Amino acid sequence: MSKEIMETGKNTVIKTDSGDIKLSPKIIKDYLVRGNGNVTDQETMMFLSLCKFQKLNPFLNEAYLVKFGSSPANIIVGKEVFTKRAFNHPNFNGLSAGIIVERAGNIVELDGSFKLKNDVLLGGWAIVHIKGLEVPFKTSVSLEEYDKKQSTWKQIPCTMIRKVAVVQALREAFPEQFQAMYSEEEMPVDNEIINKLDKIEIPEEAEVEEILETKEVNPIPEKVEGEQEVF
To answer: Tens digits of per-residue pLDDT, 15-51?
Structure first.
């Protein structure tokens, strides 16, 4: 980690699908952290690195940093990023997904997120078709592994577990596009709490310059001796 970047707050220009943005450790800490915890320098730099290398715009909620108390921070990527990028990939050839239930003693895969009243929800599934590949990528996930038994998972468990399956299938099908990217449904954070957190305030250009106190562009440094890789 570069002490210079952390201490001076120099900004990095990040190219995203929605245009270039300026991001620095100070901007992240002042505007982009959700929750009541104080993020560490390492967590801040990991978030900055992910946004840079995956071209994510945190001001549009494509990625956000959640920290509660002294617990480790969670770096979360919006599900729309996964689906939008997959649909725009030249080799993408279709997606289907649904839920897995126990019905009358049988294991049944259902399309979508609808089940009968007496069905017992067990998990979710998703299939991603890639052009030129005879066998598609299929993922099945267990409800037991991901159910946080809180708020949204209690209200719409079918929808939630299906989302997990979709994201995991897309990540397996396109590992380079979605490396180190995880959706909120996969992370150990209560989705309802995330949704109730204060929305980020996008700083004006002049305010960004005032925060940074510099107009220089400083890219993320290469790995220094003794530092672990971000990904």
So the answer is: 998 899 999 999 999 989 988 889 999 999 999 999 9
Domain ranges, ordered by start, for the chain: 3-78+192-212, 81-179
Q: Give the β-pairing of 33-34 and 63-66.
A: parallel
pTM over 0.85, yes/no: no
CA atoms within 13 A on the CB side of 84: 9
pLDDT for 79 equals 85
Predicted confidence (pLDDT) at residue 208 exceeds the cutoff of 60: no
Q: Name the phi and psi angles at 87, rounded to 5.
A: -65, -25
* Whole-angstrom distance, CA of residue 69 vs CA of residue 58: 22
In the chain, where do the E strands start and end? 12-16, 19-23, 33-34, 63-66, 74-77, 92-103, 106-111, 120-130, 137-142
The SS3 call for residue 131 is coil
Q: Tell me how many helices (H) and strands (E) the chain has.
A: 9, 9
Structure confidence at residue 36 (pLDDT): 84
Q: Which residues contact 18 (CB under 8 A, 6 or more apart)?
A: 57, 60
What is residue 22's DSSP assignment? Answer: E
DSSP reduced 3-state for 188: coil
Specify the pairing of strand 106-111 against strand 19-23: unpaired
For the chain, the residue count is 231
d(CA 157, CA 76): 19
Please tell me the distance from the alpha carbon of residue 91 to that of residue 82, in angstroms, as a whole number.
14
